[in-house]
Amino acid sequence: MKAVRGATTVDIDSAKQIKERVKELLESICTQNSIDKEEIICIMFSNTLDIRSYYPAKAARECGFSGNALYSSLEPEIEGSLARCIRVMLFVDKDIEIKHVYLHSAENLRKDLTKKYNIALDGPAGSGKSTVSKLIAKKLNILCLDTGAMYRACGLKCHLSGVSVNDEKAVEAILKDTQITVGYENGVQITYLDGKDVSSDIRKPEISMLASAVAAWPYVRTKMVEAQREIAKNTSCVLDGRDIGSNVLPNAEYKFFLTAKPEIRAKRRAEENAAKGFSQPFDEILADIIRRDEQDINREVAPLVKAKDAVEVDSSYMSIDEVVNFILNKIQEKV
Ligand code: DC
User: Fold this and answer.
1) Which residue of 28, 122, 158, 197 sits 20 to 30 Å from the alpha carbon of 178, by its own alpha carbon?
2) What spatial distance separates the first Cα and last Cα of the chain, rounded to whole Å?
3) What helix, strand, coil percent values describe the chain, rounded to 5?
4) Residue 303 CA, ligand 1 centroid: distance in Å
5) Residue, of 246 and 205, whose pLDDT is higher
6) What pLDDT score was predicted for residue 66?
7) For residue 218, how far is its CA from the centre of ligand 1 (angstroms)?
8) How far is the C-alpha of 254 from the C-alpha of 115, rounded, in Å?
9) Phi then psi dihedrals of residue 309, to 5 deg
10) Residue 148: CB within 6 Å of ligand 1?
């Protein structure tokens, strides 16, 4: 069983508008969540005391929800609360990804759900950004853009073409005619290099250093940043990277900087590699992480840096769930 939340407001306390707004709210909830009326177990309403002309539950019955158990109650009068507001909780006998629905002035109650917003999640290699951002995106039902994957695809292209990542001119020449795009399958990012799915090739340890090196060139950064901004422009998403909060989206609504001690990051990377079937000695992984940090922090263009207004989270001794909950709570606090 799942519970879907929703709310709406009326401009005037009239039976006509209450009926219209209740119908609109219930129909939006059903459409956005692909719910049939038969799958609804019950619908519970509450409304503020300034609504007196009609029961929302009665309005629901009259607009076609007559076969469902319906209930209305009154909310306490809380100073400063939203005026003429009708809230709903709908229980459904279905295992679905829930989309809560907030309409009219009630949009302001849950800006995190109703407004387009971006979350910048930056940090060094192995800080847990990619796992955390995927979980946050899933929780908030928004897109997750792994920007490192795009630089990895650039590194892979150089590798496949025999171009040295240290040769700026050659890198620019090869990438000018290269297409790097991302798509999504069931919410999972697929990274394409010239139309070919390279999602697993770009994860090979040898590509990490190439990605970091190639990401230092201004031409590469301009091309990737443009593509990232285009995706983030119209879509709510979490972007994980190095320079999202400081450079790609300086006006992102929420910014976080995830860190962890190098040894802990290396240990996590070793476990990840083992799970993917890549073997690399621990000391080598640690040395790579330290070298990559140096390279990412010290490059001239858009280096790895904590944006001034980002919230820093040291995940060294936190579980993934703790980090995810900390970030979700911070987002909710700011709404
Ligand atoms: O997050 P990752 O390890 O997949 O990233 C690979 C490299 O790409 C990283 O070492 C630096 C670079 N990168 C970057 O410069 N800017 C970003 N926004 C993301 C990654």
Assistant:
1) 122
2) 28
3) 45, 20, 30
4) 10
5) 246
6) 93
7) 14
8) 13
9) -95, 15
10) yes
**Beta-bridge partners for 182:** 191
pLDDT at residue number 91? 97
Tally: H helices and E strands in the chain: 11, 13
Residue 221 CB less than 6 A away from ligand 1: no
Cα separation, 321 vs 135, in Å, equals: 9
CA-202 nearest atom, ligand 1: 4
- Measure 125 CA to ligand 1 centroid, in angstroms: 8
| Top-confidence residue, 308 or 277 | 308
Q: Of 280, 248, 251, 249, give the one whose Cα is nearest residue 267.
A: 280
The tokens describing 49, both together, are 């005391």
Whether the per-residue pLDDT at 315 is higher than 90: the answer is yes
Please report the pLDDT score of residue 48 as a whole number: 97
d(CA 18, CA 16): 6
The answer on pLDDT for 55 being more than 70 is: yes
pLDDT one-digit tens code per residue, 92-149: 998 888 889 999 999 878 766 777 899 999 999 889 999 999 999 988 888 999 999 9
Nearest-CA residue for atom 14 of ligand 1? 242
292 Cβ closer than 6 Å to some ligand 1 atom: yes
pLDDT exceeds cutoff 80 at 72 = yes
The CB of 243 under 6 Å from ligand 1? The reply is yes
Distance 266 CA to ligand 1 centre (A): 16
Q: How far is the CA of 224 from the centre of ligand 1 (A)?
A: 11
Provide mean pLDDT across the span 61-85.
93
Distance (angstroms) between ligand 1 centre and the Cα of 146 equals: 9
Which residue's CA is the closest to the ligand 1 atom numbered 6?
148
Give yes or no for residue 296 CB within 6 A of ligand 1.
yes
